[in-house]
Amino acid sequence: MDAVAHFFQSIPVDLLIIQTVNGVVTGMILALVASGLTLIFGIMDVVNFAHGELFMLGAYVGVLVLTATGSFWIALVLSALIVALLGAAMQVVTLRPLLGRDSLNTILVTFGISLILQNYALWQFGPVARKIGEPITSHFNLFYLTYPWYRILIALLSAAIIGSFWLFLKYGKYGVWIRATAQDRVMAQAMGIPVPMVYTGVFAIGAAMAAASGVLFAPLVGVNHTMGLDWVLKAFIVVVVGGMGNLGGSIAAAIFISLLEAYAAIWVNPSQAVLVSFVVLILTLLFRPTGLFVPTPK
Amino acid sequence: MNQTAPRTEPIVLVEDVHTYYGKSHILHGVTLHVQPGEVVGLLGRNGVGKSTTLKTIMGLVRPSHGSVLLDGNAISGLPPHKLARLGIGYVPEDRRIFRLLTVMENLRTGLDRNGVTDERKAGLLDKAFTYFPVLAERRNQAGGTLSGGEQQMLAIARAMMLEPKIILLDEPTEGLMPRMVSQIRQIIDVLHREGVAILLVEQNVPLTLEASERVYIMEKGLVRHHCAASEIKVDDPVIGQYLGV
Amino acid sequence: MSGEALNDVRSPANGRAAASAPVLKTELLTVRFGGLAALSKVNFEVKRDEVCAIIGPNGAGKSTFFNCLTGVLKPTSGRILFDGEDITGLPSNTISRKGIARSYQITNIMPNASALENVRIAAQSRRHAWNMISHHSAFPDINEKAEAALQSVGLLEKADQLAANLSHGEQRNLEIGIALATEPTLLCLDEPTAGMSTAETHDTMQLVRRIAKNLTILIVEHDMQVVMELCHRITVLHYGEILADGTPEEIQRNSKVQEVYLKT
Questions:
Q1: Which of A3, A105, B155, C83 is the most core-located residue (most Cβ within 10 A)?
Q2: Mean of the per-residue pLDDT values for chain C?
Q3: Does B71 touch chain C (CB under 8 A)?
Q4: Which of residues 167-186 of C touch B (CB under 8 A)?
Q5: Can you tell me the mean pLDDT for B222-236?
Q6: Which chain B residues touch A192 with a CB distance below 8 Å?
């Protein structure tokens, strides 16, 4: 009892709050990346191994547009649009012909595309990381830290993007099409819904979400051709833990895992703290393989 | 029998269609037609290929041989969503309503087509709710919470939202209580009055003979008998041969 | 090699009952899925060497019944007795070893193996199953068994052909051959003539007649001609309950059955 009390007394409250904020911020970006992934899987049954590269490409396009226009916001919007178009083209050329086939085919194809995109970026932009400046550089005082407002902005924007997509899905005309296609592809076709186009649209939206997260996150880490790799691994963990195809679940899982990692970083090295996400993944697969944040299957 | 060749241009013409599921040869050369505004019955035991015939017309399976014409145009090979927009409504055997969508959203899937004005959409919805008042009551409920009979009505109403020239009805009375069966019967009449052609696949012989103008009887993937519904009664030996035990 | 070869080496079951006692008996067999009773208090019997059909409209419970017999589905209540032994709820591999074999509606053959190999693997499951080292040629009895099974289903000439290259009818018959190679006491055939032309149906009927000597057979079928000509007895299921049971003539004359089928 004494040891436990001592342990809890030794935790600095301010550090805890700082890490909570950090965890939520990282969690929201992860949620945005994972949302695109879970959307593509939930509606199209495609495991998109190229998702991290769409994130990376979004960041690079953001760099280019920023250099050309000087505006972070234009870079954000334009990057999302351009990568959306790219994603649509990718889907039409490589994935549409595979519709209805074994999912192993789509995994191989998207994996191949991820390799192509990574090496293209390396060839086109070189190995040196690029930099995007934050649009707002002001800070506020969080205990003994000067915490950048930009990080808070990222979290809010991610939430806004996910939120507006959820509204679109629930109330928009094409939102009904997407939901109908996800539930019964064949019957959706029999009702006149052009399912191949719905799939392309969904893939484009997922790509746009990945690109937006890439641009938003770029000021924090720098843009280089391997930045997608770390994120896509975490995003897959989030998608599995949250329940594949479950949008709300992946958001909850993203924040949950990011918070746990942030707290773990209080005591251990941050590069060791990432172990947390793997532990959560293993436990989920062992005990609740359909997802931690999914209602108990009956 | 008497009316083998169609007199005017049929709305749907199926000619010598062979369909396979993998290697399983289900349709061995089916030929039938439906005239505009006609109600045609398709009878036969389980497993003879009635549903497969409807699925072939709807483009859900591709025939390996033979042709399917809609209004004189060849349609086999076209994707189902184009056929739905060209005027074929499909009400499948297990209803297949979108369980997680509300009744309203289910109906909307058929309404959101190109060139349909908001007024026309409102008019179609009104019609659906007038003919199926129970759907109006439950318009914001999820499709999966409806009873079997209500789901069947939703499936038919949903197809009507496409303003189809022909509706393919696959065993609409299966698993329904007698009271609901007679409601379905009335709905078939209503559709007929609206001028919509119907190809009705059913196991319920009396209902089919009553509702249809012509009937086809299938066995083992082929049409074996074809006549006007008025020429045949339930106790006809032909019925016993192909449908009874 | 005729049907007799199969008969000789059938594995002895424990406590075999007298020849006239039922091979299979179900007592109050019930399967509920939530509020729906797929099978309701079904009391069913098959005598040794009978060929019995189970018919009924869509959703009557025929597949559910087969699934219970072969251990694919666990019944909610009731018992299944095979040769006097309670097999209710046992897993399918155990039930297969006890002597119940089943062919499926969707063919379950291995397309990239030859017809003989398909059947031989089933034969091996009965003997020498744990010997992983010796080549199959070290067990002549297995090859004999496999060839006998192929012969019974009329596919001996095509023994070395890839299963994928056989016609649909031949593939369905190969499935029956695979089931036969497990030396069953009871053979369950699930819609054996589905998707077949009239000629192929006729061939399959001949096949079933041949193997019916010394074998108890249960068939689910929609093709009335097959049922009427092949079976000693017919059981009609309707909404999970037994509606009627009797010889083909009795069933044909049964007005309740006609009513259910014609919905008059």
A1: B155
A2: 85
A3: no
A4: 167-168, 171
A5: 92
A6: 81, 84-85, 109-110, 113, 162
* In chain B, domain spans: 12-243
Q: Do B109 and A186 count as a contact with CB atoms less than 8 A apart?
A: no
The model's pLDDT over A149-199, given as tens digits with 9 standing for 90+, comes to: 888 899 999 999 999 999 999 988 899 999 999 999 999 999 999 999 999
- For chain C, positions 126-165, list CB contacts with chain B under 8 A: none
CB of C17 within 8 A of CB of C198? no
Q: State the CB neighbour count (10 A cutoff) for residue B186.
A: 11
Q: A287: distance to nearest CA of chain B, Å?
A: 27
So what CATH class is A18-287?
Answer: mainly alpha
Q: Does A96 touch chain B (CB under 8 A)?
A: no
DSSP B134-171: HHHHTTTSBGGGS-HHHHHHHHHHHHHTT--SEEEEE-
Q: Residue ranges of the domains in chain C?
A: 3-9+19-262
The shortest C-alpha distance from B220 to chain C (Å) reads: 7
Looking at residue B117, the DSSP 8-state letter turns out to be: -
C221 CA to chain B: closest CA distance, Å?
Answer: 9
* Residue A163 buriedness (CB in 10 A; 0-12 / 13-18 / 19+): exposed
Cα–Cα distance list, B3 to B168, B222, C148, C181 (Å):
21, 17, 52, 52
Q: Does domain B12-243 have CATH number 3.40.50.300?
A: yes
Residue of A179, A187, A189 with shortest CB distance to B79: A189
Q: Which two tokens stand for residue A61?
A: 């396009």
pLDDT at B5 over 70: no
Contact between residue C107 and residue C167 where contact means Cβ atoms under 8 Å apart: no
Is B113–A183 a contact, with Cβ atoms under 8 angstroms apart? no
Q: pLDDT digits over A26-48, tens only? A: 899 899 999 999 999 888 888 89
Whether the Cβ atoms of residue C70 and residue C250 lie closer than 8 Å to each other = no
- Nearest by CB to B25, which of C57, C168, C261? C168
CB-based contact (8 Å) between C262 and chain B? yes
All residue ranges of chain C with pLDDT < 50 are 1-18
Neighbours of chain B (3+ CB pairs under 8 A): A, C
Contact A53, A233 (CB under 8 A): no
**Mutation to test the C interface, candidates B25, B43, B45, B46, most C Cβ within 10 Å:** B46
The pLDDT, as a whole number, for residue A8 is 64
pLDDT digit string, tens, across residues B105-120: 999 999 988 778 899 9
pLDDT of B51 above 50: yes
Q: Please write the tens of the pLDDT for every residue from C165-178.
A: 988 888 889 999 99
Measured between CA atoms, the residue of chain B closest to residue A186 is: B60
pLDDT tens digit sequence for C30-70:
999 888 889 999 999 999 999 999 998 877 889 899 999 99
Other Cβ atoms less than 10 A from the Cβ of A102: the count is: 8
Determine contact, residues C16/C85, Cβ cutoff 8 Å. no
Predicted ipTM beyond 0.85? yes
With respect to CATH, is domain C3-9+19-262 assigned 3.30.1490.100?
A: no
Report the first-to-last Cα separation within chain B, whole angstroms: 24
The full 3-state SS of chain A, as one line of letters, equals CHHHHHHHHCCCHHHHHHHHHHHHHHHHHHHHHHHHHHHHHHHHCCCCCCHHHHHHHHHHHHHHHHHHHCCHHHHHHHHHHHHHHHHHHHHHHHHHHHCCCCHHHHHHHHHHHHHHHHHHHHHHHCCCCECCCCCCCCEEEECCEEEEHHHHHHHHHHHHHHHHHHHHHHHCHHHHHHHHHHHCHHHHHHCCCCHHHHHHHHHHHHHHHHHHHHHHHHHHHCECCCHHHHHHHHHHHHHHHHCCCCHHHHHHHHHHHHHHHHHHHHHCCHHHHCHHHHHHHHHHHHHCCCCCCCCCCC
